[in-house]
Design a protein that fits this description.
The chain contains 6 helices and 7 strands. By secondary structure, it is of the alpha/beta class. The chain has one domain (3-198): Rossmann fold. It is globular.
């Protein structure tokens, strides 16, 4: 997070309320709007560091909560974490063994930004495709997916791909996103199956 964002109202609220980043309020907004997380859900968070979505997930469900990220995640009570690359297919079996039935996959992950808008957007779409592939490999039928993306020329293709595997796919912009951001969330409900192309 750049220093220019350190002292905005959302950041300060996160510090005051004990969340690890402003992103906590993005998931809270999504939950308030779509009511995805139920109290028995087992939740997988991909790209979970520093852990604010894990905190919200832990508050919302009594089920198991697992976070995966390339960066180590500081311990959270009642949360399991794995340091690893979500593109490593071996993690899919590990996630299933820890969670059992996976009912919700979350991802607020984004690539390291270079400042080149078209390059960064292409990398973000590639990451979204990896998240979708992981979700399709572990979600139970009827499960849900929430993932961050960025609007641009390739976004419609990712949205169309997601719609092949879920009965309902919506987009959502959070009030907690930084002003001027092209950040957008894909909220996909009721997983119905995955094509071989994503295996």
């Amino acid at each position: 997070m750049g220093s220019q964002w350190k002292k905005d109202a959302t950041y300060l609220r996160a510090v005051r309320e004990g969340y690890r980043s402003r992103a906590a309020y993005k998931l809270k907004e999504i939950q308030e709007r779509f009511h995805l997380i139920r109290e028995t859900d087992n939740i997988l968070d991909l790209g979970a560091a520093p852990g604010s979505w894990l905190q919200v997930a832990r508050e919302t469900t009594r089920g198991r909560v697992l976070g995966i990220d390339l960066a180590p995640i500081a311990p959270l009570e009642g949360v399991t974490t794995i340091t690893g690359d979500l593109t490593d297919h071996r993690l899919r079996d590990e996630a299933r063994s820890i969670l059992g039935t996976v009912t919700i996959v979350l991802s607020d992950a984004s690539p390291k930004l270079s400042g080149n808008r078209s390059y960064d957007q292409a990398r973000a779409i590639g990451l979204g495709e990896e998240v979708l592939s992981f979700a399709c490999a572990v979600l139970k039928p009827g499960g849900h997916l929430v993932m961050k993306s960025f609007q641009g020329e390739d976004f419609s293709a990712l949205l169309a791909e997601t719609r092949q595997h879920f009965l309902s796919v919506r987009t959502f912009r959070s009030r907690a996103s930084r002003k001027g951001s092209s950040e957008i969330y894909i909220v996909a409900r009721n997983y119905v199956g995955c094509s071989g192309a994503l295996e």
